[in-house]
Design brief:
Blueprint lengths: L8 H13 L5 E5 L6 H13 L11 H8 L5 E5 L9 H11 L9 E6 L6 H12 L5 E7 L7 H4 L3 E4 L5 H11 L5 H10 L4 H7 L3 H19 L2 H8 L6 H22 L8 H4 L3 H19 L4 H15 L3
Parallel strand pairs: 1-4, 1-5, 2-3, 3-4
Helix pairs in contact: 2-3, 4-5, 7-8, 8-9, 10-11, 10-12, 11-15, 12-14, 14-15
Bound molecules: zinc ion.
The site of zinc ion has 8 residues, from α3.
Length: 320
């Protein structure tokens, strides 16, 4: 059943090993970006916890069936992404007292706290009490985009599992099944732009926001090579209120320059206006600059600083 989850071999191996050795973690934290599949993976852990089969989750026992349908009475999903209230201090206290009640049907009971980064400090402290002395047979699965939003004391009590995007080529393949009816080029672009994030790529196909990212990236690349610093800033500004799209767009710009660079080394160069305005070394530098910007944004650098930094770095790499 675990094999149905794409990529993430390391996370799956961690989980499978734990179940085989009978060392069941009582609290797991799944960290990964939105759309990476944290909730799906949390459901798999929950299914494994309640499963009555041999290889957990077996996928065939009645517990697994109910777990995957989302109707197992011993699995509760509390979604902090839907409403912050769902994970406020009162909600956590209620979870705490219900956790001490025996499971209904299975041997274990699972609480999935999705988007746990939305918990207040007070709520986290309330949760800490139950993590410190978990009732027998209770498993907590927390998900978050970035562990830095959680208290150190919480982090020290959970098994951390990273949920990564699969490679873009695998994402592209999966998209054909998940979102049929699009062109090959579109699948490739979506997998590329969203860096293999299946959830976000599938949701974006055929969406106006997706075209905006792809067209925006072309305009940014053009402004970088042919325009002034002001032109470049202006094109970047189209994404100032949407950090996720901005990052997706930058990944696409990076791919455009990486592609230009590849073409420079082909024996028969296909020189378009963009490619002839820039040297191989400059392409390489721009790819590195964008990569650095993406990493800084990962560490919470905001849009204003990132865009100004990008402009000055790109323009100086091009000696313009
Ligand atoms: Zn089962």
């Amino acid at each position: 059943m675990l094999q149905a989850f794409y990529g993430n071999e390391k996370a799956k191996a961690t989980l499978a090993l734990g179940w085989k050795g009978g060392r069941l973690p009582h609290a797991v934290l799944l960290e990964g970006e939105s759309g990476a599949g944290k909730k799906t993976f949390a459901r798999l852990i929950a299914a494994a916890a309640v499963c009555s089969g041999e290889e957990r989750p077996c996928g065939v026992c009645r517990h697994c069936a109910k777990a995957m349908e989302g109707v197992h009475p011993d699995i509760r999903l509390i979604d902090g992404g839907e409403s912050a209230k769902n994970l406020n201090v009162d909600a956590i206290r209620e979870i705490r007292s219900s956790a001490s009640v025996r499971p209904n049907e299975a041997e274990r009971k699972v609480y999935i706290l999705a988007d746990a980064q939305n918990m207040t400090v007070q709520a986290q402290n309330a949760l800490l009490k139950v993590l410190e002395e978990p009732p027998k047979g209770v498993v907590f699965v927390l998900t978050c985009e970035n562990r830095s939003a959680l208290l150190e004391t919480i982090l020290s009590r959970v098994t951390l599992v990273r949920i990564e995007n699969p490679p873009p080529a695998l994402c592209e393949q999966v998209l054909h099944e998940l979102a049929p009816g699009h062109g090959e080029e579109e699948y490739r672009l979506a997998a590329d732009v969203f860096d293999g994030n299946i959830g976000r790529a599938a949701a974006s196909l055929g969406d106006a926001g997706f075209r905006r990212i792809v067209d925006g990236a072309d305009a940014i690349a053009k402004a970088a090579v042919q325009g002034t610093e002001y032109d470049l800033l202006e094109q970047l500004a189209a994404f100032e209120n949407d950090k996720d799209s901005f990052r997706a767009c930058l990944r696409r710009v990076k791919a455009v320059f990486a592609d230009l660079l590849r073409r420079k080394y082909l024996p028969e160069q296909r020189r378009d206006a963009l490619g002839s305005g820039i040297s191989a070394l400059q392409c390489e530098r721009i790819v590195a600059i964008i990569e650095a910007a993406l990493q800084m944004m990962e560490q919470n650098m905001g849009y204003p600083l990132a865009s100004v930094w990008l402009c000055s770095q790109i323009k100086s790499a091009l000696n313009r």
